[in-house]
Amino acid sequence: MESLFDDSALARAGGIVRPGVWHLPGWLSPAAQEWIVARFFQWGHGPVPPHRTHINGHPMSVQSLSLGWHWSPNRYSKTADDLGGAPVAPMEQWLVRLGQNAVAEATGDAQRAAAYLPDAAIVNFYDHQATMGMHQDADERINAPVVSLSIGDSATFRLGNTENRNRPWQDLRLASGDLLIFDGPARFAYHGVTRIHPSTAPAGCHLGAGRINITLRQTGLQAI
Ligand SMILES: O=C(O)CCC(=O)C(=O)O
Ligand SMILES: [Fe+2]
């Protein structure tokens, strides 16, 4: 019953939000969402467990883990140096292919998609209280697309301008299965998450309460 009225039942327009931003609602099939949730629980076993990254001494409200490169503020590393030095889990090849398919389908630019080789995934878990302040994804060295996948409860995602964390911005609702890409003129747009909407997830994704967001990034860094 619950799943009849989850957010995936809403008819939502998708496509180009503004130059460089694409939103494809329900891009991940229900089966893919369920499969990724199962993988998410496996990632939780380590080697670096989900953690609240500290920014300026304060823990973020989201719990994060990384694949490929460990992210800590302003820095990517191969070991989680802020958490005892465990090696980061490897990037998974199905995520690379998923990212390439996402870029190809959203943008229609086959060359940009083929050149896209994301080597890091940041996996965030939001409980119902969690939010993310306005920021730029600017720790990557090259200007490749950011591919964002959302699963579980819906979120209000705030998409700002490229100059500062203030207005103008626009609020988008990201539901389970949604794909969002920012690239080109919007690659360095400020963005954040202002709210999680409880009880909006499809029951079949089996996450329980909360939201997962996975962002795929191409860092431009070389492992040494
Ligand atoms: O949860 C989201 O939709 C955005 C996450 C994000 O901005 C990030 O991980 O840098
Ligand atoms: Fe971000």
TrEMBL record:
Keywords: Dioxygenase, Iron, Metal-binding, Oxidoreductase. PROSITE patterns: FE2OG_OXY. GO terms for molecular function: dioxygenase activity. InterPro entries: Alkb, AlkB-like, AlkB-like_sf, Oxoglu/Fe-dep_dioxygenase_dom. It comes from the Bacteria. Its cofactor is Fe(2+). Residues 117-220 form the Fe2OG dioxygenase domain. This is Alpha-ketoglutarate-dependent dioxygenase AlkB. PANTHER family: ALKYLATED DNA REPAIR PROTEIN ALKB-RELATED, NUCLEIC ACID DIOXYGENASE ALKBH1.
